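Title: Prediction job returns without error message
Component: structure pipeline
Severity: low
Priority: P3
Assignee: unassigned

Description:
Job completed but the reporter wants confirmation the result is attached to the right record. Sequence as submitted:
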Amino acid sequence: MTSLWFSLQEFFTTSSNWSGSSGIPARVGEHAVYTLLAWLLAAGIAVPIGLWTGHSGRGGLLVGATANAARALPTYGVLVLLVVLLGIGLGPVLIPLVALAIPPVLLNTYEGVRAVPPAITDAARGVGMRGREVLWQVELPMALPLMLVGLRTAAVQVVATATIAAAVSFGGIGRYIIDGLARRDYTLVVGGAVLAMAASILVLAVFAVARRVLVSPGLR
């Protein structure tokens, strides 16, 4: 524990670690870009599909099978394979992260809409609401708590796993871990690991606030 404390102290108090293209602000910014892009792409794919399948009641088995298949993909293995096939680039980094994030978003969105009591949707149709209005004004607000759980899970998984970008010469927090292991500089390894953990905690805090703001008090 003493060695760990001194490593943390050295990492965060060394002035050179706070400036330049390899400084902590730059690496955190790169990590945030990879994470946000992957998460937005996954949400853009999974949320509409989950809403439609949940609302229509069609494709539930396909949703489950697709999500389970995506969960089974080894993220690092997919990354290495894509780099071999496509070369080093942002695409091979983002694709496995998107595949990692889609299952929780897709399943939670689908299950959230399907969990809305039929009596409520029947009452909405009874007062003249059309299918799209039922989805956006009734089902979506009621499914939002479970959807946010899926989005939060995906975000935490991506922010933790985005460290693999450093394995194919990209930046981000993982750069400290990869470089530290290569140099046997465990101060860098410990610092990178703590930054990754702090990023995950920050994501949890952001979603806690989002839940407080977006979800109706009666549904919390």
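Comment from assignee: result matches the submitted record. The chain has a mean pLDDT of 89.
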